[in-house]
């Protein structure tokens, strides 16, 4: 049964850093599992990670990422994003950034909404930050 729904399993190492005070240097390592059988060359996977953040004790992070192309009439869209959940010394953190993208010849336009809880600090609670964007892919 699991073979029907699960795809490749692999090791992953990630590094996050920023010049912002609320984003610390973080090394993440662990395993990732792809989910099988998504239509139209879509993907989704889940990462189970050890989280080593400079200012925190070693902890864990779970990340779900996805990308799914779809069509509405003659328009081809994609729905992409990720969802992160982790625990640090003081709080549980939730961060997701789903995107809706529309490719137009040499450019993509789209929208993204960042939804987070405690991402900016312990007492920030829920934050919602919508955006629009233009993307110029390198080919």
Q: Order of SSEs, N→C?
A: HEEEEEEEEE
Describe the main β-sheet briefly: 9 strands, antiparallel
Summed up, the domain count is 1
Query: Helix/strand/pairing class, anyone?
Result: mainly beta
User: Any idea of the CATH topology?
Assistant: Porin
Mean pLDDT: 90
Q: Which of globular, elongated, flat, extended, rod-shaped describes the shape?
A: globular
Approximate helicity band: under 10%
CATH class: Mainly Beta
Please name the defining characteristics of this protein:
139 residues, mainly beta, Porin, nine-stranded antiparallel beta sheet, 3% helix
Structure description:
- With 139 residues, the chain is mostly beta strands.
- The protein is 3% helix and 65% strand.
- Strands 1, 2, 3, 4, 5, 6, 7, 8 and 9 form a nine-stranded antiparallel beta sheet that branches.
Task: Give a topology summary.
Blueprint: H1 2-5, E1 6-16, E2 26-35, E3 43-53, E4 59-72, E5 75-87, E6 92-96, E7 99-104, E8 107-117, E9 126-135
Antiparallel strand pairs: 1-2, 2-3, 3-4, 4-5, 5-6, 5-7, 6-8, 7-8, 8-9
